[in-house]
Amino acid sequence: MRFGSFYMTDAGKVIYQAWLTGAGVTLANDSVLYRWTVAGSNEVLAREGDSAPGTGSHYLAFQAFSVCSGGAMVLQSNLGNGKIALMRALLGAGPTAALQTGTTLTYNGATRSILTLGIHQTGAGVGGGGGGLGAAINDEGAIFTVLSIGASEYVTLVYRP
């Protein structure tokens, strides 16, 4: 097993990424996001190849994830159906679909489709997130994302639970 990014929450929980090895593990299912608690339990939040709840598809490849100090997490993942999704896991809960490409929104009075999206995955702005250095999700589960809507136009969105 190999370990990657990890985040420590204020409550002493750790959310981290690991890559599994061994029998039955392939590049299609090796990456896993875990939540570890002081009590010593490891909970699988998401694993490549598994169903992505609320999307009608499965996780294909994890692109990025971010965790706030309170423990809420947002995962940006490619899906097996060709879309990109933001999955939100609030403290003590598993991930659910928050937003995905192909979703429409109104911009300057016109209906536009989200072509791609992104989150800020690293860093923490302990002084309030100045300079764009805050987590992509806050304790309440509000996600800050940048969306591409075509014609070289990008918008930011705070997607609330």
Could you characterize what this model shows?
Helices cover 0% and strands 49% of the residues. It is mostly beta strands. A hairpin with a 4-residue loop joins strand 5 (51-52) and strand 6 (57-67). The protein has no helices and 14 strands. It has a five-stranded antiparallel sheet, with no helix packed on it.
List key phrases describing it.
four-stranded antiparallel beta sheet, single chain, 161 residues, five-stranded antiparallel beta sheet, 0% helix, mainly beta
Write the layout of secondary structure elements.
Elements (H helix, E strand, L loop, with lengths): L1 E7 L5 E6 L11 E6 L5 E6 L3 E2 L4 E11 L5 E7 L4 E6 L6 E5 L3 E4 L2 E4 L2 E3 L24 E6 L5 E6 L2
Antiparallel strand pairs: 1-2, 2-3, 3-4, 5-6, 6-7, 7-8, 8-9, 10-11, 12-13, 13-14
Quick take:
The protein has 161 residues and is mainly β.
Structural class: mainly beta
Secondary structure: helix percent: under 10%
Rounded to the nearest angstrom, the radius of gyration is 16 Å
**Which strand order do you get reading across the main beta sheet?**
5-6-7-8-9
Question: What is the number of helical segments per DSSP (H or I, 4+ residues)?
Answer: 0
Percentage of residues in DSSP E strands? over 45%
What composes the largest sheet?
5 strands, antiparallel
Question: Overall 3D geometry?
Answer: globular
The low-pLDDT segments are: 124-133
Tally the beta strands: 14
Run of helices and strands:
EEEEEEEEEEEEEE
- What do the pLDDT scores average to? 87
Euclidean distance between termini CA atoms = 34 Å
